[in-house]
Design brief:
By secondary structure, the protein is mainly α. The protein folds into two domains: 23-148, DNA polymerase, domain 1 (Orthogonal Bundle); 149-196, no CATH class. 52% of the residues lie in helices and 0% in strands. It has nine helices and no strands. The chain has helices at 23-31, 40-57, 68-79, 85-88, 94-104, 112-131, 151-154, 170-185, 188-195. The protein starts with 22 loop residues before the first helix and ends with a helix.
Length: 196
């Protein structure tokens, strides 16, 4: 006696493998995630910052093809990227600007806070991809640069400030304190996004 052949229940049948998404597609899913509420300034900050990452990683790179080597390449590029490179080198790509800065030994490069901000952004997108089951692990995890200046040494308070020709009033002190803070965070936009 032969038993009638039954179909495999739908819950046990293998899922068809979904077509992998590009990095740009995953970023758009990430930025438009309905489970997260983001301020307009935060979204604008992500959209500005992602352009630098796209320049190294590539918009059309499949999310599964972003590995540790790609993440390290981004980190190295950022370490040699001059501040305001799109304005200083409008005809060069981000990678070309970093390469030129390295060859010339340029000193006005992105600071550790800015570099780590880009790396954290990439890591956040990759964590989102893990949660969406698009990838299994985050190859960017833990990739950061060390800031040689301790946080406590970056603080400036009114009592430590030497009043002189440059600043003879508490209002001037606040202006200078703001400028120093902006310098530590890389630019005013980054600072504003952090504070908002």
């Amino acid at each position: 006696m032969t038993l009638p052949q039954t179909e495999t229940p739908p819950s046990l049948s293998p899922r068809p493998k979904a077509k992998q998404k590009t990095f740009e597609q995953v970023f758009e899913l990430f930025i438009n995630d309905p489970t997260r509420k983001r301020a307009k300034k935060t979204i604008a900050g992500y959209r500005d910052g992602i352009e630098i990452i796209y320049a190294v990683v590539g918009r059309e790179t499949l999310i599964g093809d972003i590995d540790r080597e790609v993440c390290r390449r981004l980190l190295e590029t950022l370490q040699w990227l001059p501040t305001n490179s799109p304005k200083k080198f409008p005809t060069l790509t981000v990678v070309q600007a970093a390469k030129l800065a390295r060859q010339k030994g340029q000193k006005d490069l992105l600071g550790p806070v800015s570099i780590n901000g880009y790396m954290i952004m990439l890591s956040s997108i990759l964590n989102f991809a893990i949660n969406e089951e698009l990838i299994e692990r985050n190859p960017c995890r833990g990739l950061r640069v060390i800031d040689p200046i301790k946080k406590r040494d970056k603080r400036l308070n009114e009592h430590e400030f030497k009043w002189g020709d440059a600043a003879s009033t508490p209002e001037a002190f606040n202006d200078i304190k703001f400028l120093v803070t902006v310098e530590l965070f890389g630019d005013a936009d980054t600072l504003i996004r952090i504070l908002s």
